[in-house]
Amino acid sequence: MDIENFYDTLYARFGFGKITVDGYRRTLTKVLRDLGTQKPTAGQLEKYIAEMHKKSYSYSHLRNTIIIVERYSQFIKRPVKLARPRKPQPMIKEILSEAEVVRILTATNNIRERAALSLLIYTGIRNKELCNLRVKDVDFENNVIKVFGGKFNKDRAVNIQKDGIRAVSEYLGEYGRETDSWLFTTLVRGSQYNGWALRKLVKVVSRRAKIKKRVYPHLFRHTIASLLVQKGANLMTVMSLLGHKNYATTLLYAQFSPQRVAQEYNFYCPTFS
Q: How far apart are CA 231 and CA 227, in angstroms?
């Protein structure tokens, strides 16, 4: 059996994009490697998922794995139906303070580091979205970053502050790039920048800045969204910036900002005396 045919069906029958299919590939490769077979039985898959439950894997990882193995089991004609885990109440647990963000930017050693981190900090784009940026996706005239093929294959235009766009401009002045080239590449091989390299950069610079929290690329996304809400930004604006598919996801940032809720309550609440 050619397992590549399964991935082809994801493109052809489900209309998935490359990012989604790559995610399926990573997860399924691990499952089949752990099981030691490309044609697992329903019993093997049930036991595998049961072990994931026992090991307390995250809701999203567990749910995605279940969906993937179910579709694969149908493809190999050994269908299995597995129960979905209950979705926990999501919550934004922690963000960076404005002072911590300043410390991180100050701790960058060169314009390449500063440009990459400025993009994360000012725009809230995802790790993969930054790695997929090309030079032509930066609109210097309008201070806009164009994101193509983001999550759910959603394209969007993201605003960026002047300090952020200036850092990108200075970076390109020092590291010349053609219009169609990747905006960021690895230093050794000059290949497309990847998520692992970006996570490492964020970790190294945050340590340099002596930030005690665990800092990772997605934390900047939570940070900019939460700070915008705290300062009074409309939730629809934040939703557009982040490229959320569902409004409920953006509402999480309002729940993380009780002071904003209190401010609006005090402003709009009528008096009855």
A: 6
C-alpha to C-alpha distance for 65 and 26, rounded to whole angstroms: 10
∠ CA 25-27-32, nearest 5°, is: 90
- DSSP for 115-147 reads HHHHHHHHH---HHHHHT-BGGGEETTTTEEEE
**How far apart are alpha carbons 98 and 74 in whole angstroms?**
49
Rounded Cα gap, residues 65 and 51, in angstroms: 12
What sign has the CA pseudo-torsion 73, 74, 76, 79?
positive
- Whole-prediction pTM: 0.66
> What is the Cα Rg of the chain in Å?
22
Place of tokens 């579709």: 71
Q: How far apart are CA 98 and CA 191, in angstroms?
A: 33
Q: What is the pLDDT of residues 5-51, one digit of tens each?
A: 999 999 999 999 888 899 999 999 999 999 999 999 999 999 999 99
Per residue in 92-148, pLDDT (tens digit) is: 778 899 999 999 999 999 999 999 999 999 999 999 999 999 999 999 999 999 998
- Which residues, including other chains, have CB under 8 Å from residue 135's CB and lie 6 or more apart? 172, 177, 178, 179, 180, 181, 182, 183
